[in-house]
Every structure is written in structure tokens, then in C-alpha cells.
Amino acid sequence: MDRLEAFKSIAAEAARGELVFPTNVNASLKLQQALDDPDCHMEKAAMLVQAEPLLAARTVAIANSVAYNHSGGEITNVRTAVMRLGFQTLRTLVAALVVRQFGSMISTPSLRNKAAQLWEHTAHVAALAQVIAKRVTRVDPETAMFAGIVHEVGGFYLLSRAKDYPGLLDGDLEDWVEYGQTKIGRSVLKQLAVPDSVTEAVEALWYGFRALPPETLGDTLLLANDLAPVQSPLQQNVGGNTVESASTIDFVVGDGTLASILEESADEVQSLTAALLM
Description:
mainly alpha, Hypothetical protein af1432, 66% helix
């Protein structure tokens, strides 16, 4: 089976809803459903988070990041962290947990390395999207961070299936970008119940052209993706903007520029990225 046929096979399975998720992903999806329940209160949310050690640690770390802890007082427990972050950010952290758990299916060292790089790219995009939304486009920062978290979830799913298709990710990855990304990515986003507005923003990243100055959630995500200092391993061999060319992007924002805003927000982006990567 050649690579295009392999992409078509995986995409056809995904379109039929035949997605192969690891057990821990299914457990995290149940947690997501619980948090979506309108009867779920903060105390119950804190108990649910504490039951998942990795999520609990990341929740406290995010709550202590520069982006969320403006007072500087250290938060040392999940309950306080949950109250600080709120349900919308908690849902984003559960999504981050789901995305990372796809890596638990990967045993091949080369694929695990790609998954690690893809998560590092994802964390940078999510942190940059949050800041760009808050300081530049004025769209909801929490939604922008969530979009950054899930924008490569189809790629993680592909990596988790690559062991079944030898040679799938060898060489140039144009088949993934032009075919597999949209077909597989859209199906995984649907299965994870990602809101339509966020899915549309991710699709704008797949298809869109950079709009400067950016205005929409899709523009925010695209700019964050371009500015991320770590490239996706599924994109780096298919052309597009390099990190060097992306770093030259600048435009006027109010009384400042994008470059000045990113410089002022560097600690915030670094702190949030580090918390997501832990």
C-alpha cells in the first residue's frame, strides 16, 4: 500500500467513526463530559481533577503561570487552582491531556520523537494564541488557547496509527497536508466534540492565508502557528513559512506593534508554554 492509499484508508476509517483511541483517552473524554454537565460545581470539578494526577499537576502549574497568577501568590492545591482557572480553562487542560495521551499508543522511538516535537509545537501555539487573542485580535483568549491545543490533534492521531503503515511518514509529507490533515483531522475533532467555531478556526489554518492585521479566531491561530519557534514535524518538509521568515512578521497594533507586544508578553508566553509542557 502506497502512502496516499494509506492516508485514504485511515481517513475512511475516521469518517466512519472507527477511531482507535487508547483507554486513557476514553476516560479523559468522560471527564470532559462531566465538566460539561451544567450541574457540575467547582467542588466536584476539583475532585475530578484530583483523580487524574497529570491533570492535577498541570492545573496547579497553569494557575501559577504568569498568564493567570497576577498577584504572585503561589497556589499549592487543586481546589484553589480550579477556582482561579474556571471551567473553560479546565476544559482546555482536559483537551491537552487527551491530545498528549495519543502518544501513549506510540512505541516506535522515531514516532515518539515526532510526537514530542508536535506537542512542543502545540504548547507554543496555544500560549501564543492566548496572548495574541488578548492583546491583538481581542477574541476570547481561552477559546484561542483551546484552539491552539487541538489544532494538531489529527496529527497526533496519525502518529498513533503510523506503526500500522510502514513508511507512512517517510520523506515529504504533502499527502498528509493536502489530504490526510483535513480528512482525518476533521473526523477526530468531531469525535472529540470540539465546538464548531473552533473547528472552523482550525480549518482556516489548514486552508487560509495570513490576514494582517489578524481579526478572527482563525487569523489568531494562523499567526500563532507561524510564530511558534518549534515547527510541527508534519509540516517542516512541505514548504511554507520557516521560523526565520515568520519572525519578521510585524504590524501596528494601536500605539504599538506586534513585535513590541510579543516582547512585553514574553514572560507570559514562556510561563504558559512551560506549564503545558510539564
